[in-house]
């Protein structure tokens, strides 16, 4: 995230303020005027070394002010999409009314289908978007206006973005209608607190928990739809996609990553994603990685969190579901099987097992294996605000540096991907542990962000 770039590029003047139905937002008085937005390159002075401390503080303050404007603009955009949803739903209702008023003529379509097609084509033509996109917009708007009013309000007030709202609609739609309201109650606060990617994952977990049909039953039905497909891509490429039971997909992907990571030599010019793709092709076509023979004996290590009671065969309804690292909730049947029989899957009881090392104090810098696994379960991803990179590929950072008396303890350690690890050491982003695994971040311009652990573990 390049804050200085955003500041200099903020297209504030392009917002159609005069026509925006949110006149209460003080855009005209937005604190952009007078600030050195056009001369923002001054912000980019490396490390502020050529600036006096006071000048650097002024620039940080200026960034903070521009960020306030940016947040306000995003809020207005979200709010406008709420008005758009209301208007789109109005088109749907009017088309429906027109159709039911018309004398029935047998044209092969029911009044409902006719109305839906009319609404979609009207919107598609007027907005110059595809009919498919228009149909999606109309359907999402109908769900927001008629069935998810709290989400529509959150959108109108700019507390969630349209992308958050459409994920919520999408997940709700996969539940029976009777469960929509309780899903909305549980999911909306998550949408207000998370990035789009983080929310998508969380919304899926919430949905699993609320589905009236058990995950075991749904999983058995879904496993019948497993398949492999090839789709042509551009420029001589193609997509090979497999629709697999989650534990197989995650296990295969993790093994690809482990083999691909092992191929990183001094003269290796391929990126990790490129190596992963090459390894996949080699393994499927030849059985091993051709040039190095790599792949033999490499096993994926995937963590499966299982509530202790599930493993004893007496799961209670209040138990958190079992969960597969990098995926989310899985059926207790699958979790129990993986935990007992699959060597690639490391079992983690969600009640901490006795003997897990949580702290080695100041005795050594290196993080012992037990504590590494424990931290991987707690963090799941890089802990920088909004980052979704998997903890398994991230560094474990001493929050207070080792040379500054920081200890090798769970409450002084957190996963940071290499990009954010460097960011922490090279910029004025600051972080401290706030207890219970939560981290509090302070940006260079002084804004505060809190990131929560994926799993709260007793320590
Ligand atoms: Zn990160």
What is this structure's SSE topology?
Layout: H1 3-9, H2 53-101, H3 111-127, H4 131-146, H5 149-156, H6 162-173, H7 180-193, H8 196-210, H9 215-223, E1 227-232, E2 238-243, H10 246-262, H11 272-286, E3 302-306, H12 308-311, E4 323-324, E5 328-329, H13 332-341, E6 345-349, H14 369-379, E7 395-398, E8 413-416, H15 418-426, E9 430-435, E10 438-442, E11 448-451
Parallel strand pairs: 3-6
Antiparallel strand pairs: 1-2, 3-4, 4-5, 7-8, 9-10, 10-11
Helix pairs in contact: 2-3, 2-4, 2-5, 3-4, 6-7, 6-8, 7-8, 10-11
The structure holds zinc ion (ZN).
Zinc ion binds at residues 382, 384, 387, 389, 416-417, 419-420.
Give an overview of the whole structure.
- There is one protein chain.
- The protein is α+β, with helices and mostly antiparallel strands and 459 residues long.
- Among the domains are: 232-286, no CATH class; 302-349, no CATH class; 369-451, no CATH class.
- The protein contains 15 helices and 11 strands.
- The protein has helices at 3-9, 53-101, 111-127, 131-146, 149-156, 162-173, 180-193, 196-210, 215-223, 246-262, 272-286, 308-311, 332-341, 369-379, 418-426; strands at residues 227-232, 238-243, 302-306, 323-324, 328-329, 345-349, 395-398, 413-416, 430-435, 438-442, 448-451.
- The strands form 4 sheets. The protein has a 4-stranded mixed β-sheet with strand order 5-4-3-6, with helices on both faces. The protein has a 3-stranded antiparallel β-sheet with strand order 9-10-11, with no helix packed on it. A two-stranded antiparallel sheet has the order 1-2.
- A hairpin with a 2-residue loop joins strand 9 and strand 10.
- The longest helix is centred in the first third of the chain and has 49 residues, at 53-101.
- The protein is globular.
- Residues 1-48 and 352-362 have low confidence and may be disordered.
């Amino acid at each position: 995230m390049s804050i200085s770039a955003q500041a200099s590029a903020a297209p504030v003047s392009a917002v159609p303020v005069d026509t925006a139905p949110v006149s209460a937002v003080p855009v005209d008085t937005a604190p952009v005027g007078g600030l050195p937005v056009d001369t923002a390159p001054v912000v980019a002075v490396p490390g502020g070394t050529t600036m006096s401390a006071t000048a650097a503080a002024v620039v940080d303050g200026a960034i903070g002010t521009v960020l306030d404007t940016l947040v306000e603009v995003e809020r207005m955009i979200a709010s406008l999409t709420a008005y758009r949803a209301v208007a789109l739903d109005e088109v749907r209702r009017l088309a429906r009314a027109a159709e039911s008023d018309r004398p029935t003529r047998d044209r092969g379509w029911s009044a409902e289908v006719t109305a839906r097609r009319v609404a979609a084509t009207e919107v598609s033509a007027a907005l110059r978007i595809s009919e498919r996109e228009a149909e999606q917009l109309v359907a999402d708007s109908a769900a927001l206006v008629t069935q998810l009013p709290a989400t529509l309000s959150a959108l109108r007030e700019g507390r969630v973005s349209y992308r958050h709202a459409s994920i919520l609609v999408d997940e709700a739609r996969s539940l029976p209608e009777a469960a929509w309201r309780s899903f909305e109650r549980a999911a909306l606060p998550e949408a207000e607190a998370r990035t789009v990617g983080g929310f998508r994952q969380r919304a899926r977990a919430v949905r699993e928990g609320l589905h009236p049909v058990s995950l075991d039953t749904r999983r058995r039905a879904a496993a019948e739809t497993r398949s492999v497909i090839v789709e042509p891509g551009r420029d001589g490429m193609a997509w090979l996609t497999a629709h697999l039971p989650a534990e197989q997909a995650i296990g295969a992907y993790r093994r690809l990553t482990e083999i691909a990571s092992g191929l990183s030599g001094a003269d290796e010019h391929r990126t990790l994603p490129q190596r992963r793709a090459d390894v996949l092709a080699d393994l499927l076509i030849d059985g091993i990685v051709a040039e190095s023979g790599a792949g033999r004996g490499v096993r994926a290590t995937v963590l499966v969190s299982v509530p202790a009671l599930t493993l004893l065969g007496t799961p209670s309804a209040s138990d958190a579901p079992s969960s597969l690292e990098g995926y989310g909730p899985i059926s207790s049947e699958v979790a129990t099987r993986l935990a007992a029989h699959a060597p690639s899957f490391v079992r983690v009881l969600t009640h901490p097992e006795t003997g897990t090392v949580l702290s080695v104090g100041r005795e050594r810098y290196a993080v012992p294996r037990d504590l590494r696994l424990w931290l991987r379960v707690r963090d799941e991803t890089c802990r920088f605000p909004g980052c979704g990179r998997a903890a398994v590929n991230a560094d474990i950072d001493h929050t207070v540096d080792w040379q500054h008396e920081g200890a090798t303890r769970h409450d002084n350690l957190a996963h940071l991907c290499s990009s954010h690890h460097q960011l922490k050491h090279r910029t004025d982003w600051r972080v401290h542990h706030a207890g219970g695994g939560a981290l509090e971040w302070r940006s260079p311009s002084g804004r505060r962000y809190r990131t929560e652990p994926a799993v709260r573990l007793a320590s």
